[in-house]
Amino acid sequence: MEPRSHLQKVLSEGHFAVTAEIGPPKSADGEVVRKKARILKGYVDAANITDCQTAIVRMSSIASAVLVMAEGVEPVIQMTCRDRNRIGIQADLLGAAALGVKNLLCITGDHQKFGNHPEAKGVFDLDSIQLTAMVRQMRDEGKFLCGEELTGARPEFFIGAVENPFADPFEFRVKRLEKKVKAGAEFIQTQIIYNVERFKKFMEMARDLGLTEKVYILAGITPPKSFGMARYMKYFVPGLDVPDEILKRMKEAKDKREEGINIAVDIIQQVREIPGVAGVHIMAIEWEEAVPEIVKRAGLHPRPLEAEVKPAIAVEVERPEKIEVVAPPKEEEEVAEGPPKIEIPVEAVKEVFSSVRSSIESLREGINLLHDSLARLERALLGGEVVPAEVPQVEVKVEEKPVVEEKPAEEEKPAVEEKPVEEIKKEVKPEEEKPEEKPTEEEPEAKPIAEEPKAAEPKPEEKPAVEEKPAAPAGPPPEGVELGGFIGEYRPLSERAAGLPEDLYKDPGTAFIREVEIGKGEKAFKVGGTNVLPFQLFEGEMKNQPRIAMEVLDVKPENWPESLAKYFEDVFDDPAAWAKKCVETYGAEAVCVYLMGTDPNYLDLDAKHAREVVEKVVKAVDVPIVVWGAGHAEKDVEVLREVAEILGDRGAVIGPVEEANHRTLGATAMGYGLPVVATSPIDVNLAKQLNILLENIGVSLDKILMDPSIGALGYGLEYTYSVMERIRLAALYAQDEKLQVPFVCNVGREVWKTKEVGLPTDEILGDQEVRGVLMEAITSVALALAGGDLFIMRHPKAIELTKTIISALMQEN
Hints:
This protein folds into two domains: 6-224 and 264-307, Alpha-Beta Barrel (TIM Barrel); 465-494 and 517-809, TIM Barrel (Alpha-Beta Barrel), CATH 3.20.20. The chain contains 24 helices and 22 strands. An eight-stranded parallel β-barrel has the order 1-2-3-4-5-6-7-8, surrounded by six helices. It has an eight-stranded parallel sheet with strand order 20-19-18-17-16-15-22-21. Strands 9-10 form a two-stranded antiparallel sheet. α6 (170-183) links the parallel β5 and β6 (187-192). The protein is globular.
């Protein structure tokens, strides 16, 4: 196969490749990028263009790549999952390919809390493995992720990914590499290497799996500029392994930068001897001038095939005050004198183009409307038959309401009503005679679960009966979603695996997750206490099943959809009555008081308000309590210190505790004997680091719950699952005691702020309430399968469904 890029050609011909890195500026100054490219030209085979590295806003990677190509350097654009969903990523990939970019590096991206916009919403629609698979599908199969065919040229990328040979759990890093290779990665750039011996072990494991025959591995190299930089990387950069020998060399060196270059050259010489290493990736952070010197000293200059890289054509256009338009000569004029020139003001030209553009946009809108109308008509006339669905494991129904028949919207769809009768099952009742669309690959088949999608949406003037009652902590819940149980007969694993040796399907853990007690007295409970992966009871023991706390807000919520609000709006103004209703009506086994009103970016209520709310809730209910601050490090110190005094006798949990306030809140928790929620951005090493910091000031690991900053279904759930799974594997199989603590997942807050839970009931998305219940329950169950121990949830029916599924999973298997 013809190489897709210069970098691929260098690697495929067996040359030892060299790539470097260009960090775009925090400005629109293209000359900064061009200058860096000129420094690297002739010394590297390709240059990575970072994509807002460390979550700091910088010039676009794709735009910078065009500037780099103009200087005769082949770029490798980085594409992160942090800032774009699958639509934006695929659009950018098509644009980059159209501009001539041939190399792509797929990465998940640093969490936004690292950068200069920590309040930004992380997307994480995909993770790096899913992104890699999507790019390969676009390239090799000519299909978008949704399955739709590309209508023209495919993006022909040489696909790369990254791997960290040093992150925990070390034994599983090569497995993660294998996943990326299977997804479509063709070259790998590693994290910075200082511990060469450990990297050798990683490469040995990669060779054992045959990965070095399937992917080109480029070892990451960074020259330290100073002793301070080396020390910072050793102690404060998660996932880096900097031996003391490196620190000693930098500390004793007279010329720190010269020694940094020497260290980089020494490491290059060592990794070149490791079988399977196909090149190096030099990351001279804001020190591009060091790259040529490193390459020359390492004996990697001149570069092979260097002459084949040609600069792209770059044209700079100046904007004149007036545009000269040459008119054709009249017959009586002498051509030799040249045609006359007509001066037209630029503004007039802009006006003409604006008019033309407006006309084109109007035409485009008309075409789009026509396309949508035809699509709807096609679905109505040619939609698939209503086929009998397989029996779902959990039944979710919506009770009938007479108002459904009075809705005029159902009479406005004659095309659907005229569907041939023979395509409808005879068993379907008359009020169900509405054809179901076959689910697409991205739409789960929800129709059999919600038999009557519109039944849960009452008219505004006809609210459920419970809403007409005065505020009360107890009473029957509003009508809405009904839940069934599991259907079918369960066959234990011992029966299914009869006759097989146990070592074929058993891999028991070698450590336990610590137990953390929440609350005091008869209703206290423990979480954690497992030595197996979630629900793998045939391998070991789960002493405590996952628990659920219902959320109570300190202020009336402003944006809850009716499908959720109707269960609590009679107690919105009284957190104590709200908590009591959660316990007495919905059977809550714990309550989480979310002090969102204290957020400085919201209402900025004071610590006195928080104390009054928590004090009322403590007196109203006797179940364990979690008090969750606003998530603002400085304000939470003030608020949680105030409420801790009245929580001491209840053994309540307080949080979130972050690195920025761990000393103060850690000391507060120890003073009152309270467990804490340790919150970190979704990252294995950051979670471990915060636990270490808390333990260093005296907080026992038996008093820590980890909050990994989860994402909701469709909003980074896959990445959350991946990180939680890696934490649990490190705890159980790598005996990493700093990670042997339970997880707490704030599911309700994340799910009920998503767009989908608030969209109205319609034929495509189904009933609004069923949709919200399923989103919250699916998110919770998925995170329980990843190791979640305590869930903070909102919707009573989502909690009921989650408990039903967890109870079934807890059967002996």
